[in-house]
């Protein structure tokens, strides 16, 4: 009689496993047709060289303002002081430009300096002043 109960339990367990596997495999992801936007993106020409180094951009500008700000970040248990050094330029065509720079570079700028700004990937790469103040 005990073996009959054991066989019944095995049948129920095996049946449950087969049922669960059937559910999992019957819900396979549906393959959708690509949308019009996706197919248009696939038709676009690939970039010439996606891993090519960024080209520097040079322009003339004047330093109009310098700002250093400090703030606390993190939690109250582990606060961290973060200092941000900003240089505000005005290009020759009058458009403003704000650039975050390291402290070592920040100390070399003076308001009113004019010169050639070199940017690479929207980061300051260099500044060659016309004259030293």
Summarize this entry quickly.
The chain is an alpha+beta fold and 133 residues long.
- What is CATH's topology name of one domain? OB fold (Dihydrolipoamide Acetyltransferase, E2P)
The sequence of SSEs as H and E is HHEEEHEE
Please tell me how large the radius of gyration is.
32 Å
Question: β content, as a range?
Answer: 35-45%
First-residue to last-residue Cα separation: 103 Å
Look at the structure and give the mean pLDDT: 79
Strand order of the main beta sheet, please?
A: 3-2-1-4-5
Question: What are the segments in which pLDDT stays under 50 over at least 5 consecutive residues?
Answer: none
Total of DSSP H or I helical runs spanning 4+ residues? 3
Helical percentage: 25-40%
Taken from the alpha-carbon principal axes, the silhouette is elongated
Main pleated sheet: 5 strands, antiparallel
Number of strands: 5
- The CATH level-2 architecture of one domain is identified as Beta Barrel
For this structure, what is the CATH class of one domain? Mainly Beta
**What would you call the structural class?**
alpha+beta
Key features?
single chain, elongated, OB fold (Dihydrolipoamide Acetyltransferase, E2P), 5-stranded antiparallel sheet, alpha+beta
Written overview of the protein:
- The protein is α+β, with helices and mostly antiparallel strands.
- The protein has a domain at 57-129: OB fold (Dihydrolipoamide Acetyltransferase, E2P).
- 28% of the residues lie in helices and 38% in strands.
- A hairpin with a 4-residue loop joins strand 1 and strand 2 (79-91).
- It is elongated.
- The relative contact order is 0.13.
- The mean pLDDT is 79.
């Amino acid at each position: 009689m005990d073996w009959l109960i054991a066989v019944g339990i095995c049948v129920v367990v095996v049946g449950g496993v087969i049922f669960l596997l059937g559910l999992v495999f019957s819900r396979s992801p549906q393959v959708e047709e690509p949308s019009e936007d996706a197919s248009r993106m696939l038709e676009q020409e690939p970039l010439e060289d996606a891993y090519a180094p960024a080209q520097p951009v040079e322009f003339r500008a004047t330093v109009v303002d310098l700002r250093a700000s400090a703030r606390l970040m993190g939690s109250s248990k582990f606060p961290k002081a973060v200092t941000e050094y900003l240089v505000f330029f005005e290009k020759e065509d009058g458009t403003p430009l704000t650039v975050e720079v390291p402290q070592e570079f920040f100390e070399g700028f003076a308001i009113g300096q004019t010169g050639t700004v070199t940017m690479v990937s929207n980061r300051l790469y260099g500044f060659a002043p016309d004259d030293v103040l």
